[in-house]
Design goal:
Blueprint (H helix, E strand, L loop, with lengths): L4 E6 L6 H10 L5 E6 L14 H14 L7 E5 L9 H8 L5 E3 L3 H9 L4 E2 L11 H9 L10 H9 L2 H14 L2
Parallel strand pairs: 1-2, 1-4, 2-3, 4-5
Helix pairs in contact: 2-6
This protein binds adenosine-5'-triphosphate (ATP) and magnesium ion (MG).
The site of adenosine-5'-triphosphate has 20 residues, from α1 and α5.
């Protein structure tokens, strides 16, 4: 019998509690979940400060912290490609087979829809705070970012000196002409 397998994609810059909530909720609907880390090749910019590998570390540790059965998910880094029209095939090449996509991103929805793949828009949890943009903004401002991410992600972000990196990147981008 075919497995009921779904795909969820996020850049996870960084992993936050909204990602963990949507993963927990989606796992109630599917047998297995493929978690794609988008723009995996990007790092060291204001909106994409962390490497694909650092994001894999954050996600693995957070899923363990939340006691999510490791036999129920796959973490797959997904590099961007230049051609949107070929992107669905590119994702399918890199991932185990799946029958539906969970996304709130309108371009991702459109591209999968055009490839006859059903998509589901999962609800957003506390989106006002649980957003990558908000976490990065608070890191830049030395505000409370720790409460927006799982404890294990705080540890990874401290290990890689994330606040220092984000503040340095921002200063560099401001001074560039
Ligand atoms: P950024 O602000 O950097 O774009 P983000 O918070 O939007 O970060 P992404 O890494 O872009 O997070 O991942 C987007 C996907 O993660 C969405 O399509 C959605 O499925 C999920 N997601 C993000 N935030 C939440 C949230 N608060 N509640 C539920 N799902 C979320
Ligand atoms: Mg986003």
């Amino acid at each position: 019998m075919n497995e009921n397998r779904g795909l969820l994609i996020g850049r996870m810059q960084p992993v936050h509690k909204g990602h963990l909530s949507v993963i927990q909720e989606t796992l109630k609907e599917v047998d297995e979940l493929i978690i794609g880390i988008g723009s995996a090749e990007k790092s060291h910019t204001d909106s994409n400060p962390f490497t694909g590998g650092e994001r894999i570390l954050m996600l693995s540790k957070a899923l363990r912290e939340y006691n999510i059965d490791p036999s129920r998910y796959y973490i797959i880094p997904l590099e961007d490609i230049a051609c949107n029209s070929l992107w669905v095939g590119h994702v399918k090449m890199l991932t185990p087979p799946f029958s539906k996509v969970y996304t709130g991103n309108s371009l991702v929805k459109q591209l999968f829809h055009e490839n006859n793949m059903p998509y589901i828009q999962p609800p957003l949890f506390n989106r006002h705070e649980y957003s990558g943009t908000e976490v990065r903004h608070r890191m830049l401002e030395d505000d409370d970012w720790q409460s927006l991410v799982p404890e294990s992600v705080v540890e990874v972000l401290e290990e890689i000196q994330a606040v220092e990196r984000i503040q340095k990147l921002h200063k560099r981008e401001l001074s560039e002409i």
